[in-house]
Fold this protein.
Amino acid sequence: MNMVFETILKYLFKKPLTVRFPYESLETAPRYRGKHEFNIDKCISCGICWRVCPNQAIRMVPAEDKKKYPKLYPEVDLGKCCFCGLCQEFCPTGAIKLTTNYFMSTPNPDVLILKPGKKSKG
Amino acid sequence: MADGDTVEATKALEIPMLLEVPVGPQHPALHEPILLKVYASGEEVVRVEINTGYNHRGIEKLAEKNTFYKDIFIVGRVCGICNTVHANCYVRALEHLLGKEPPARAKYLRVLAMELERLHSHMLIEAVMAEILGFDTLFMHIMKDRELIMKAKEILTGARVLADYQMVGGVRRDLSSEKIERLNKILDLVEPRLKYYMKLFEEDVTIRKRLEGVGSLTPYDITSHGLLGPIARASGVSTDVRLHDMYEVYSEVPYRIVVMDGKDTLARMMLRWEEAIVSLEISRYILKNLPEGNAVPDEKRLPRVFPEGEVYTAVEAPRGELTYYVMSKGGTMPYRVKIRTPSFNNIINSGFSYIGHTIADVPVILVSYDPCISCMERITVVDFRRKERKKLLLKDVVRGRV
Ligand code: SF4
Ligand code: SF4
């Protein structure tokens, strides 16, 4: 019984364990594997990321600005991605990277397809 | 159950029919959809049919169609809770095929990841047991402390749940001394809590009343039905792959096997707490005695083509012995990957242990085997006199409208 009151008293003067979500969010470890970041200028279109991806989440597609970027570039479908991080590890130039951003829920599935050369929101 | 039309006056309370209560196949809080068809005569369970197959994803076939390296990530998705043990078992099979030995530091880090996983897996099932017993606050408290372990796993592997931590020839991320300190701090926070919960399960009157003597399994039951892991150890059968195989570095870490003689549900839950404390001790030891060296192999330089051969590996998953059989006919893809998980043995073969208990004991016994069950709102009434079956809402049964 004492333990119960002790626990109640202890938690009475503590900050809540939960965070107020839209305003605050939980901190992730620096090595957390979240949403991809793709730097099209560094990419050499070798296609290694496309080949190693276990989920076939990466397709090689032409960029929007075909004059500046004439080759094929990886397009990541986050809906298929399992966040293993293989694409990041195998990329010879470090063009594709996983950030610690984990806010990916969306009602619009098109947002989940990261087109090469386009700045993704969020 | 009376078969004739006349019901004797001395047995006025006997319900002349069998109730079929489907327990499953969905549960809002946990994975593993499974259906238990419980046939009850009054309150007493007379037969249990176990149906599985709701979550068949064809992982074994998928593994045959992908390269050896991609399969490491595919087998990690067999189960969310024990993904590092699956990956470890498969990676060790690949290492045997290649004749490669990972460095000592990598082995220590692998064991650390696996023991953290066992810790949070055991805490999860204890929390679920608390919830099933009606202790929702206790559920919240255990889950709150479990979250610390999840954080530790995130610091180590880069993800709370799906670690993807192991690679042929080592691990994928090293641990710096600063991170070791953070992990140590988390373990210091968790240890007194584990001891407190253990004491609570041992001393609380309600928990004891609900768990003691329920779902008892004799050592004969265990061996004749092939039950594994904590269930076997709680009935006095000393079986643990960590002890028998001494894979990775279990011969060096302070590992002790926990065996209890209680045989009932309470013994199984107490055994899990004790094992959680052993896991914590192992994690502490590893953080203190981590050997120097390079644990991370260069993934780009690993051999792409594997030699011909067959390998059979086993690990002790949180739920029992998990084995992998990998067959290679050369080339870049395995010819066959066979997975045998402990839950399959433990759940499919344990239908006999519910018989004779009440319906209220079914969830308790099932949770003590560490799977996941579901809450249902419908039951089927089997009327043997009129030979008909109908489905009813539970609330109708409660209000006596059957
Ligand atoms: S993180 Fe893994 S699954 Fe996702 S795109 Fe990269 S390689 Fe594919
Ligand atoms: S992102 Fe990296 S791996 Fe993928 S095509 Fe570009 S350079 Fe190659």
In short: Chain A has a mean pLDDT of 85. Residues A 43-49, 74, 91-93, 95-96 surround iron/sulfur cluster (ligand 2) (CB under 6 Å).
